[in-house]
Amino acid sequence: MLSHGLVTLLSAAVLTTVPGTAAARPANHPDPGREGAWAGYSIGRSATEGVPRSAAPRAGGVAGMDVSGHQGAVDWAKAWADGARFSYVKATEGTGFISDSFSQQYDGAASVGMDRGAYHFALPDRASGAAQANYFIDHGGGWLPDGRTLPGALDIEDNPYGEICYGMAPQQMSDWIAEFSNTYKLRTGRYPAIYTTTRWWDRCTGANPDFGANNPLWLARFAPEMGPLPAGWDFQAIWQFANSGIFPGDQNSFNGDAAQLERFTL
Fold it and tell me: What is the pLDDT of residues 62-73, one digit of tens each?
């Protein structure tokens, strides 16, 4: 379908800069800190104004959550008792960061009966799509048709460390995403989900519609209404609708019932 991306530079604990790349994070964005960025980083901490802090599952969907090292050790039994039935867990970022909390979070979700999957925070200006897909799979982001594992997810949103589109033109970005997606499919047999915002996608890929046919959409929008979808998708698989609420981390709703969620893992 499409092709390639760029080169690497990221250390495990400290995210270094590539020569010629701005080091400062975008204005008005929270500091990623030593745990790196997270799904929803680019939406900001104040974007849930108007969304109740007790944000409950959306009617008609299956309730879920996503977490990263910023949540630390999660009380999975409580999250299950409160109604969460699936979770995405941050595994990696770039090609040099692995979440210290990944095992507790990923295995903990499974231990209480949740469907769970891993996500990768993309840094397209640091390494190629293939390199980052392989790094993700090699550090917990794989997929098995076991009825418990959600497809790995590519978190592609505003650059936490520089220019919003990572200094890449829309075709370059599209090629990078395609390389990540195709590498993941080649190694696991499953296309990854894509986590993004409509604003970022339409700006940074030039509203590329090519991914909607294969990659499930995990839409990020912290608001009472979902709003327009990115180019190429007719519906979302998951909607991340708030960054706090009844569950630890971000609040999500799967677009379907429990049986459809089970099919999503296969």
Answer: 999 999 877 778
